[in-house]
Design goal:
Strand content: under 5%
Structural class: mainly alpha
Order of helices and strands: HHHHH
Number of domains: 1
């Protein structure tokens, strides 16, 4: 009984017929064909964004900004913001 509560498909698996199994296999293949390329695309996009975010964080924590007060950091972002944004969006 414990095995059936841990693996519930053992209970309803005997209720499946050949057509239902065929439809489930087709649905699984269709889902994989759509989900795998989409996952790869998301991964490649976010890995590039991660590199750019690392650049921005390192740039903002550099010696130019490290010992600065809030107003000076804000001024630096205003001066370099377009370049930082370009690098982030360029990927």
């Amino acid at each position: 009984m414990y095995l059936k509560s841990f693996l519930p498909f053992l209970v309803w698996m005997k209720l499946l017929d050949r057509e239902t199994i065929k439809a489930d296999v087709i649905a699984g293949i269709t889902g994989a064909v759509i989900a795998l390329p989409q996952g790869i695309a998301f991964y490649s996009f976010f890995s590039e964004a991660n590199i750019q975010l690392d650049f921005i964080i390192n740039h903002l924590s550099s010696s130019e900004c490290n010992d600065s007060e809030h107003g000076e950091v804000e001024q630096f972002i205003n001066q370099q913001g377009n370049e930082l944004l370009r690098r982030l969006l360029q990927g």
